[in-house]
TrEMBL record:
GO MF term (any one): DNA binding
Superkingdom of source: Bacteria
A Pfam family hit: TetR_N
UniProt entry keywords in alphabetical sequence: DNA-binding
Protein name: TetR family transcriptional regulator
Keyword presence, DNA-binding: yes
Domain HTH tetR-type, first and last residues per copy: 9-69
Amino acid sequence: MKNKELQKSRMWKYFVEATADIIREEGYDKVTIRKVADRAGYNSATIYNYFSEVSHLVFFASMMFLKEYTEDVAKTMEKVSKPIDKYLLAWECFCYHSFQKPKLFHAVFMMDLGDYPENMLEHYYAKFPRELVHFPEELIPTLMERNMSKRGRSALELALQAGEISDRNVDAINEVTILIWQGMFNNVLNHRTKYQPDIALKKTMRYITEIVRNEKVLLFNDETMEGK
């Protein structure tokens, strides 16, 4: 790496790590460009040479807190062999961690990041490659995809190829399971429910499992929906 590129990489890390420190100490709502600049020892204008807006800093800093989740899902995937079982266990891990730390998962998977390239995760792992060391090779594409619809679809592809779900229902399963999680997640994030994380997990997984295990509940398809 050339000296200029090395310096740029170091500066990028300084700002991300400063943001992470603020999140740890004060919380997500307290992150500002000025605070990050002060913590890193630079002026606010310098940050804009590396990040377009504060949401990008929050996103990259939040990625540093996902290791517990990624290690958990990697370990969990080793317990089963069937793709559909892996899919359900992956959802269970995702629900468990997202309900425990809703602000973190909102920052990574739900927050509006404005007009920014789709390769944000690739950019992060280029700077922090050590975070991928123990992650299963077959799950890396799923982790690198921020779009939840694409993440879920790629995971279901393996179950489809194994003949565990039908081709006509794969998109419906993907969409409905995401909507179920999003509904519960938004309630938890915005304190619109009294459910504790463990109860939210059980209820969400009960619905998701029913959808995945019993495809007959999906009595609609794209053509019937378009006809209404």
